[in-house]
Each structure stands twice: as C-alpha cells, then as structure tokens.
Amino acid sequence: MSMWWQVMLLAALFVLPVRRATAHELQETAITLVVREGGALDLRVTCTWSRLLLASGAAGTTEGARAAVARLAAEPEAAFAARVDAVRRALEARVRLQMGAGVRRAFIGWQWPSASVVQEALRQETMAAMTGGGGDHHASRLTATARLVVGPKIPSVQLDLPPQLGAVLLTVSRPKEQWLAPGQSSPMIPLRSP
User: Fold this and answer.
1) What is the DSSP string of 72-125?
2) Per residue in 27-36, pLDDT tens?
3) Do the Cβ atoms of 66 and 53 come closer than 8 Å?
C-alpha cells in the first residue's frame, strides 16, 4: 500500500470527527432468491462488506468501527485476502436451504467479489467518511451469487442465514420465462398485479 493511503487513513482516525451513519435500507443486507421452474434456485446476496467483516470478528473488538474499517483498508493485501476468504468460507457454510424433515443443503457455485475489490471498496468508504460523506456512501456494498437445484418435487423451502449478515431484506422472485423468435415482440406485460 502506498504511503499516501496510509497518511490519509491515519488522518481519518485521528483528525476528523466521528460521524454516525444513518441506518436505512441501502445499508442492510439484501438477498434475492430467484425460483425457477424445475426447482432451480439462484441466490444473490448484496451486503456492506465493512459491516460484514466487523460482524464476523475479522477486525477485532478493541477499537471503534470507523478505526477498524480504516485499519482493514490499510492492511497488507495478503493478510486482508486471508480475512476475506475466512468470511467467505464461513458464509458458504452457514447459508443453507431447509427442505423439511431436517434436510439442509448448501448452495454451490459461489461467485464472490475479489479481496482486492473488497479492500478498495473499504478504502473508498474510509475516504468518503473523511470528507463528510460517510453516512451516505455505500462503497463496500458488493454482491455474491450462488445456485442450487432442489428439483421439482420439493413444495417449499426455508432459507437459513447466519447472524453476521444482520437484518436482511429478502426478495423472492418467480420469473415467467419464455423464448421469443428473432425479431418477435413479447406478449403484453402487465405492470400491475391482477
């Protein structure tokens, strides 16, 4: 990490006043579960990585949240990558689908933002906090995806989530999919529920 970043992060810790972020929906974790015909499920998890790392204990507990995020943003890349990898593995192990009778299955094919993307987002978040935009800036809000096929005979499922994700806004979508020939217009698409 360059000396410039280290100086800027230290300034965030010691010079600027702490500004409390206002909580609203955009800071919370959002999960979208797309249920397709045949029991195929697509999962999209969008969360604020600074909050996720703090809730997972990755930053320690001896300092305030702002200082911990600044320290993580300035951490050497290899050490930070190891922290992010541990959080990823923990989430992959804890995000499960219950299918009744105690049967639980893990999602597969997880696609995560790289550790360098997460760390850069933390740096942007720290810089925004330093310039007074910390309450309105959501740079570390990044998305991970996964999938699972449970089959057409499962009538319902329940999503189990770890507490590190915090409050979650869950959206379940059941898209109506159909093929259109080249140049063919779609059928009329209602914008209101019947």
Assistant:
1) HHHS-HHHHHHHHHHHHHHHHHH-EEE-STT-EEE-EEEE---HHHHHHHHHHH
2) 789 999 999 9
3) no
Do 148 and 105 touch, CB atoms closer than 8 A? Answer: yes
User: pLDDT tens digits, residue range 93-149?
Assistant: 999 999 878 889 999 999 999 999 999 999 998 888 777 654 545 557 899 999 999
Backbone angles phi, psi at 144, to 5 degrees: -120, 150
Please name the residue that has the structure tokens 């299955």.
Answer: 105
Long-range contacts, stretch 154-158, CB < 8 angstroms, 24+ apart: 154/39, 154/99, 154/100, 156/100, 157/41, 157/97, 157/98, 157/99, 158/97, 158/98
Residues 9 and 68: their CA atoms lie apart, in Å, by 11
Say how many residues make up the chain. Answer: 194
Q: Is the dihedral angle over the CA atoms 173, 24, 88, 119 positive or is it negative? A: positive
Report the DSSP pairing between strands 96-98 and 40-48.
Answer: unpaired
Q: Which structure tokens are listed for 34?
A: 């797309």
Cβ proximity of 125 and 32 under 8 Å: no
What gap in Å lies between CA 38 and CA 50, rounded to an integer?
A: 37
Domain ranges for the chain, please list them: 7-16+25-173
- Tens of pLDDT along 69-98? 889 999 999 999 999 999 999 999 999 999
Distances from the Cα of 75 to the Cα of 30, 56, 189, angstroms: 27, 17, 50
